Amino acid sequence: MCELLAMSANVPTDIVFSFTGLAERGGVTGPHVDGWGITFYEGKGSRTFKDATPSSESHIAKLIKSYPIKSEIVVSHIRQANRGCVSLENTHPFTRELWGKYWTYAHNGQLSDYQDKFVLNRFQPVGDTDSELAFCWIMEQVLAQFGHKQPDDMTKVFSYISGLADEIRELGVFNMILSDGVDLMTYCSNNLCFITRCAPFGKATLIDTDVVIDFNKETTPNDVVTVIATRPLTNNEQWHILKPGEWKLFRQGELLATD
After folding, report:
1. What pTM was computed for the model?
2. How many CB atoms lie within 10 A of CB 241?
3. Fewer CB within 10 Å, N- or C-terminus of the chain?
4. Are 208 and 233 in contact (CB under 8 A)?
């Protein structure tokens, strides 16, 4: 299986610490050697870095670990291929436009017998993974349900997407991260957790490599940062473990909606 990482914050924040831990799982402490990717939102725009090589060996990953790109929403993924070949087009996260916004998606899991379910029109996959096909189908259903104009209440959209995720979970394992650049949604099939860091901040120690950070020196008392991961990244903090079928929606680090 792959592993997911995402962040929602109320101020532009770098994800160097968390990504450093995740990258080790791409070939050192984990078997996820079939590529990796990360997307940073900056206003209405986004910048994405992808590589089909293991994150523990990638020169691009080394750049991300050393260059603190600050963002309020980040979506990242390290891949262990099960559907589709090892290639750049099959590397997450995937992005599509809807309602004048970039939507970014990453999936951990494997689906079966899905070809007849995912009927597509406007949104088409570029690669040949079950993950990207499911993403296109979700976007297709959202467009059909809500039309070409964005609803005023986006929580209704994400609640509707959670129902779509329930349907997809019947086809296999479906842990998902999805963002429209404003809100960040998590959906758990079997493995997903999160932690919200706010004042008073303390120290955190990575599980996968010998790195410690004192968030009290890196933050202000008003900062709120939520990090989502497949498995906890630190060994001295209390992570919240999501239950199968549970979904949550975060905005600027705060929990906005849940099931």
Report:
1. 0.94
2. 12
3. C
4. yes
- Measure CA of the first residue to CA of the last residue in the chain; give whole Å: 25
The DSSP bridge pattern shows strands 3-13 and 71-78 to be antiparallel
H/E stretch holding 206 reads none
CB 236 within 8 A of CB 214: no
Query: How many angstroms separate the Cα of 109 from the Cα of each of 74, 77, 130?
Result: 20, 12, 9
What CA–CA distance (Å, rounded) separates 74 from 55? 17
Contact 109, 117 (CB under 8 A): no
Contact 32, 2 (CB under 8 A): yes
Catalytic residues: 2
Nearest to residue 5, comparing CAs of 195, 229, 187, 235? 229
Within 8 A by CB and 6+ apart from 109, the residues are 1, 2, 131, 172, 173, 174, 175, 189, 190
pLDDT value of residue 1: 67
Q: Hey, is 99 helix, strand or coil?
A: coil
> What confidence score (pLDDT) does residue 102 get?
97
> What integer pLDDT is reported at residue 210 of this predicted model?
85
The DSSP secondary structure of 110-167, one letter per residue, reads: -B-S-TTT---SS---SS--HHHHHHHHHHHHHHHHH-SS--S-HHHHHHHHHHHHHH
Q: What are the structure tokens assigned to 245, written together? A: 């079928």
| Residue ranges in the chain modelled with pLDDT below 70 | 1
Q: Where do we find the tokens 């906005």?
A: 256
Cis-peptide, bond into residue 200, ω within 30° of zero: yes
| Residue 12, preceding peptide bond in cis (omega within 30° of 0) | no
**185: Cβ contacts below 8 Å, ≥ 6 apart:** 158, 161, 162, 176, 177, 178, 179, 247, 248, 249, 250
- For residue 208, what pLDDT is reported? 86
